[in-house]
Amino acid sequence: MLRRRVIPCLDVADGRVVKGTRFVDLVDEGDPPTLAARYAAEGADELVFLDISAAQEGRATLLEIVERTARQVFIPLTVGGGVHSVDEMRAVLRAGADKVSLNTAAVAGPPLIRECAAVFGSQAVVVAIDARRVTRTDPLDPTLATVGWDVLVRGGREATGLDALTWAQDAVALGAGELLVTSIDRDGTQAGFDTELLRAISTSVRVPVIASGGAAGPDDFVSAVQDGGADAVLAASIFHRRIHAIADVKAAMAAAGIPVRLVEPVAA
Amino acid sequence: MTAVRVAVVDHGAGNLVSIGQALVAVGADVRLAATPNELEGADMLVLPGVGAAAPAMARLTERELVGPVRRWIADDRPFLGICLGLQLLFDGSDEDGATTLRIVPGRTTLLDEAPTLPHIGWNQVVRRREHPLFDGIADGADFYFVHSFAGRPAPAASDWIVAETTHGGSFVSAVARGRRLGVQFHPERSGTDGLTLLSNAVRLAATAGDQGEGPAPAAGGVPVLVG
Description:
The structure holds 2 protein chains of 2 kinds. Chain A is of the alpha/beta class. Helix content of chain A is 35%, strand content 29%. Chain A contains 10 helices and 12 strands. By secondary structure, chain B is of the alpha/beta class. Chain B has 5 helices and 14 strands. In chain B, α1 (16-25) links the parallel β1 (5-9) and β2 (29-33). Chain B is globular and about 45 Å long.
C-alpha cells in the first residue's frame, strides 16, 4: 500500500535554513545539509528545499547546498524557489535534486510547466500553489457569498486574481506531476491545515497533493490526509524547533489507520 | 577486493547524480558511459532513468549503445535496470509506442487502476520468490517509486518476477534472471534499504567476476564523481 509521506521543508536563504511567519520575520534555523541528514535519519520520507533568497548570489549557494545534501542523504529531494526556465531546472537536477517545484514563473508563463515536463518528465515537475481564502459575492445576488481561494505569487506577497482550483487543474493538464498546496492564511501560524482547500484540490486532480501551511501537531497531519485527502504532508517549524518528532507524527498517523513508512530509530 | 567497476549508461534521461552518489556510497567505482567504448572495462552495467521510453531509446540509438547494451544483457553479464531502465528491457512501451530492448517478453503499460497517478512515494515491495538482491531486507519493505507505467512480463516470462507492489492493481516491481536484475523503484532514493539493495547488486556482480570473465583493464571511462 502506498504510504502517506511526511516531508520536512527547509526554507533556505543565503545558505541557512530559516522560517518566518507568513513568509516574513525570518528566524535562522540551522545548516541545511546537517538538518537534512537529521531528518532522513529520523524517518523523513522526502525533503523539500525552498530557496527564498532575495539576491541572485543565493542561487549558487543553494546549488552547492543541494549538492552537499544529495551526496549524503539518500531520500528524494525537491527544490523550489526562483526556477524560471528549463535551463535553471536542469542545473538544479544536475546538482542532485529529483524534482523541481515551480511557482511564480509557472503562473507568469504556464507553458513552462509543459516545457519542463517534456524534457524531464512530469514526475520531476511539482507545481507549488500558494492560496489565500477569499469570499466572493454572487454578482447576481449580493446576499449570496461563496468561499474560494486565490493564487498568490512572489512568496505570498502578490495576488493574481487566479482561482486556485482552476489553476490546479490547468497545471496538471500542462504536465505537473504533483501539487504542493500551501495555505498562506495558515502558513507559520500553527493553526492547522486548510483542509477545505486541500479537499477541493485533491478531489479535482489525479496527481498527488502535498499539504502545506499551518501544521501545529500530529493531529493536523492526520486531518490533512483524512479530511483534506492529501497524499503527503509538509511542515517546517514544528520539526526545526523539535516541537514534534517525525516519529511522533507518523505514530499518530499510523494509530489513525493511515499507512506510513515506519523507520527504525538510528542510534546516535 | 578491488572496487567493482560500474558503468552507468547515460541516455540523457536520468537522475545520474543520485544513482552515481549512491553507488559510490556502497563502494563501487562509478563511471558514466555515453559511448560503447566507455562500457569497456566495466564489471557491471546500470541502466537508470525516469521519463518516457522513446527519447531514451533515441538517445541510445544515436550513441550507438543499443547493440552493445543488448549484447551485454544477452551475454548474461551483471546488469541492473532501474525504473525506466527496467521498462526498456521489455518489447515495447504503451507510453509512446516505442520499441524497446526486447530482452524480456512483455510490454510496459499504464498503471490504469491507480487511485493517484503518477505513483509517487514509498510503497511495499512484496517478494514472490527469494533472491540475493534482497539479502538483509525485510519482505514487504518500503521503497521509493516515481512512475506512471510498469513493465508487465508475458506469461512465458513469469520466471523473471521477483517482487510485486500494489497501487490500485498490482504490478511487477523487481525482476531477475541470471545476473540480469531490474527494479521499478529507485534504490538510490530509498534510504538504508535502497543502499543495501545496491550493495547486494554490486556484490553479486563481483561474485560473477570471480567465476571467470576477468575484468578487462579500465578504458576511457569518465569519472562521474569525486569526493
